[in-house]
Write a structure and sequence with these properties.
cilium, flagellum, 34 strands, mainly beta, Tick-borne Encephalitis virus Glycoprotein, domain 1, 13-stranded antiparallel β-sheet, 2 helices, 407 residues, 5-stranded mixed β-sheet, 41% strand, 3 domains
Length: 407
Amino acid sequence: MLRSLFSGISGLRAHQQMMDVTSNNIANVNTVGFKSSQVVFQDTLSQMMRAAGAPQQGQGGTNPAQVGLGVRLGAINTSFVQGSAQTTGRATDVMISGDGFFVVNSVNEQLYTRAGAFNFDAEGKLVTPTGAAVQGWPAVNGEVNTNAPIGDIRLPMGTLIAPNATRNMVIAGNLPADAPVNTTIPRSIKTYDVQGNVVTLTTTFTLTAGGWEVVVSDGTSPSAATPLTFLPNGQISLPTYTDANGDTKIGLLYDPDGDGVGVEVDLAGLTEYTGNTTVSPLSQNGSPAATLQSFSINPDGQLVGVFSNGNKQTVAQLALANFNNPPGLEKVGDSLYRFTVNSGLAQVGVAGTVGLGTLQSGAVEMSNVDLAQEFTNLIVAQRGFQANSKVISTSDDVLQELVNLKR
């Protein structure tokens, strides 16, 4: 039987596989996060007709004479070239700009995806369209421990968040050096107790014959009058207190219960210059009970919650993963990939760190399929298929002539 017949058959198979891959690329031209594939062909074994000959005295060497036995599929490579961005405006849609994969958990198996079209389920979990839970780290009081194991990201939308008692307040501005004795300047600010109740703290500055004094009161328990000391340049130097971290700061601790846990009153911003009174409370760190109403995703993957009391706080952190050889990942459907022995182990981290891209919220990554290239590949595959069909047809004609020799 003619070798060309079987070479033609192998060519048909190979170019059919090329058409299959190309058609799949074209079918997924609008699939979010899809990565196109390319076929690589290899020749098969070659039959040795004559071995190579070494040069001899007076005669040159000869090359080997071999007849190829066809073609086979060498590889199907996945291209992880960045796809274009499609703006959606949805807070749960996220796009990776650069390297990396989102980490998801599907039926207790850790998988990876570039498709960031996420949603929330009935339990508040961030999930893919097929229900795989997006992985990351929860935040505790706004702090994320990325050294902890990753887990499902949950946002308690509408769930009541406990209040934060006021532990620090800042007062700054100018106390006039030319004010008359017995001048009194009260300033009030709303703070919160451990139950989230509003407590109005009034800080009263009084100019005595010996200088300015300050008293802090919640309306029932005033502090002792504390003298203020200013340097010749008008900057405050006393009083001082030791904060919760053991650092010495300018100000005082208002502790009406005497339990050592009160409100740190920061007075470092006070001055004593001739002129107008500008002293006022600037801020306090307490908040009432609140519910999580919305969120946004930062470029580094932090989910920042917006609460009903107006506060913003980090509530979770998305995890990203990368591999030494991303094309070595196995496609498992639903735009998901599985680790293999040739992809390398997943290197999990935070967006924007070494080897990992940044995130763009309100957008998704489109397919990286190049239609012009795919249509060209389709023509190449078609012509290759036709050419190999012609080889089989011609081989059949040769065999037919051979059979006709007996007539």
